[in-house]
Amino acid sequence: MSAGDVDLKKRRNLVIAASAMGAVGAGFVAVPFIASMLPSERAKAAGAPVEADIGKLEEGAIMLVKWRGKVVWVVSRTKEMLTLLPELDETVADPESKEPQQPAYCQNPTRSIKEKYFICVGICTHLGCSPTYRPEVAPADLGPEWKGGFFCPCHGSKFDLAGRVFKGVPAPLNLVIPKHVYMNDSVILIGEDGGAAS
User: 147 near 87, Cβ under 8 Å?
Assistant: First the structure.
């Protein structure tokens, strides 16, 4: 076969096939290399923001969301719960939330962006126990002055439905409110706020 008898169509097909195989091989080499530069699942879990759908959360109910290995509570407060909060200003240690236990946009009477929803880390500020959600008013074990809130069974610390700590209990500070933002009316992003509330 002479040089003039070369099948150009066959040559082009062989070049295309070799190029495709080379691209696939390069992909097999590049993917693990690029993937090694991305954060691991463990690293993401350690600090990544978490979305929570609160659209179906009933009034008075609590939702638990896991973020950074901690439990975050989302409580849908009723109008009655919100009405009772100011009555506790004299019995809580930091009624105006002056201690930096919340982002600036939650330093208000309800300690929230939208007063209906209370979002906080579910860990007692005394020794790290997990308080229980006690929304009932004046139960026998907590007394007639109880207007609903969170009770820590470990050492008896009490918090109201805005996470404000009562006076005279072991916990020194209000419950921590994480950074968060509303993505829309029914979805929140916990752990990130873009620098401001929306």
Answer: yes
DSSP 30: H
DSSP SS3 for 20: helix
- By C-alpha distance, which of 113, 62, 93, 106 is closest to 159? 93
User: Of 23, 7, 187, 44, which is closest to residue 114 (Cα–Cα)?
Assistant: 187
The predicted model scores a pTM of 0.74
User: In angstroms, rounded to a whole number, what is the distance separating the alpha carbons of residues 152 and 166?
Assistant: 12
Please confirm, yes or no, whether 155 is among the known catalytic residues.
Answer: yes
Alpha-carbon span 157 to 124, nearest angstrom: 8
Going along the chain, which residue ranges are E strands? 50-53, 62-67, 70-76, 117-121, 132-134, 149-151, 158-160, 180-182, 187-190
Choosing from 155, 167, 186, 198, the catalytic residue is 155
* C-alpha separations of 13 from 1, 4, 19, 22, 64 in Å: 19, 18, 10, 14, 59
pLDDT tens digit sequence for 1-39: 555 666 778 878 887 877 778 777 777 776 665 666 555
pLDDT tens digit sequence for 81-114: 999 999 999 999 999 999 999 999 999 999 999 9
